[in-house]
Specification:
Structural class: mainly alpha
Distance between the termini: 54 Å
Strand content: under 5%
Number of strands: 0
Shape: globular
Order of helices and strands: HHHHHHHHHH
Largest sheet: none
Helix content: 55-70%
Length: about 230
């Protein structure tokens, strides 16, 4: 109870000093969760002092996926990571990424995660900067953790294409359109694979007309090509 009380007082102090204004003044994906966290009796187990308010919310979401608490995730990180990884100058980012990668590894084991709106929002918020958009560095570090979204080879080029009309910053509206296109394309490919498999079983040799459709997911974002 004492820890929860101290955490609640710290949250109230952050609000008073304006540290959370950028979260609460806009209709961001964090506002409701922050208010919920502030009221939660388990707030002490879900607040990491080394992290920003937004990063704390992301870690809290990861902890739910992993069915643990933020503080237990921190204990695991402290036990598993080397001293260089836990260096003060890199601690916050490395711990956040540790939580993100563990949650993504579990979330992507099943089918249909691309169509899940919560998954889309979570992956975006994992990469978010203070201005509610994404930069190239965060995208390059997090997006390849979900291979269907990006990989280390095409990551920078993909980001450049997705942000060509927004000055090198990726906004959620474009990111969601990109994932919509990916989800639609992979669904079509799966359907074509099933058709092809059926024809193979029937002994049909010529499958050329059953090839997957062209990748149109970038054109749905208003981009004609890489």
């Amino acid at each position: 109870m004492a820890l929860a009380s101290r955490t609640r007082h710290m949250l109230e102090a952050l609000v008073r000093e304006g540290s959370l204004n950028w979260l609460l003044s806009r209709r961001s994906s964090f506002a409701e969760e922050f208010e919920e966290l502030e009221r939660s009796p388990s707030a002490g187990n879900n607040w990491i002092p080394e992290l920003s308010p937004a990063a704390n919310i992301v870690v809290r979401r990861c902890s739910r996926i992993l069915e643990t608490s933020s503080s237990e995730l921190q204990e695991s990180f402290n036990a598993e990571a080397s001293d260089s990884i836990k260096h003060k100058s890199r601690y916050a980012r490395n711990f956040l990424e540790y939580c993100c990668f563990r949650a993504l590894a579990l979330s992507t084991q099943g089918m249909g995660h691309l169509a899940d709106k919560k998954f889309r929002r979570l992956t975006f918020d994992m990469m978010l900067d203070d201005d509610l958009s994404i930069g190239i560095e965060a995208f390059s570090r997090i997006a390849p953790a979900v291979p269907i979204i990006a990989n280390v080879i095409i990551c920078e080029n993909l980001f450049e294409v997705l942000t060509i009309s927004t000055g090198g910053r990726l906004h959620f509206s474009i990111y969601e359109k990109y994932l919509n296109g990916l989800e639609s394309t992979t669904t079509s490919m799966t359907a074509n694979d099933l058709i092809a498999e059926n024809f193979v079983r029937k002994g049909v040799a010529d499958l050329s007309k059953f090839q997957p459709p062209p990748y149109a997911f970038l054109s749905c974002c208003g981009v004609s090509k890489f």
